[in-house]
Amino acid sequence: MAKKKKSNRPSWDEYFLKLAMLASERATCPRMHVGCVLVKDKFVLATGYNDSLPGQPHCDEVGCLIVDNHCVRTNHAEINALIQATTHGVNVRGATAYITNMSCTTCAKALIAAGIKRVVVFSDYHDTLATEFYSKSGVTIDKLPMPKKTINYDLKNYTSARKTKRSN
Predict the structure, then answer these.
(1) What is the pTM of this model?
(2) Which residues, including other chains, have CB under 8 Å from residue 89's CB and lie 6 or more apart?
(3) In whole angstroms, how large is the CA radius of gyration of the chain?
(4) Which residues carry out catalysis?
(5) Within its chain, how far is the Cα of 114 from the centroid?
(6) How does pLDDT run across 31-50, given as a tens digit for each residue?
(7) Distance, CA of 161 to CA of 155 (rounded, Å)
(8) Closest among 152, 145, 138 to 17, alpha carbons compared
(9) Maximum CA pair distance of the chain?
(10) CA distances to 14, 27, 63, 157, 166 from 160, in Å
(11) CA distance to 21, 70, 99, per residue, from 121 (Å)
(12) What is the pLDDT of residues 106-159, one digit of tens each?
């Protein structure tokens, strides 16, 4: 009997956490880059990252606006994901939030109120009551190891693909 080759496929949790990591690359607050992906039935409903309000300056341009050790210039990733979902009429009730970092207290309350049932993170956050609020509200919290930061795409060895020629 032939031995099966081990798959390099990430688990669903790893996959969605890597998408949250990718979303976090759009963040504009230098204090912490956070990404959030809202998922239901293995379907991405919305994404978000910490970023300034539309039309307002970004932290990486004019500096952070700190109040009580929090930057208040930005909306957090969770809030932006919820805003994206509501803007497009997407119901997130019963969804899972994949977040690079544990929520702040305010974001935890927003996710709970929106009906999020599970939160998956790989990093903690200072000064938050999120874990307590999630637990008391029946939201499952899964703290997983951080996924690999690499994307495995081997264009040279895919027999049906070739590198595109750059256009001018």
Answers:
(1) 0.90
(2) none
(3) 18
(4) 78
(5) 16
(6) 999 999 999 999 999 999 99
(7) 7
(8) 145
(9) 64
(10) 27, 35, 47, 9, 19
(11) 11, 20, 5
(12) 999 999 999 999 999 999 988 899 999 999 999 999 999 999 998 888 888 888
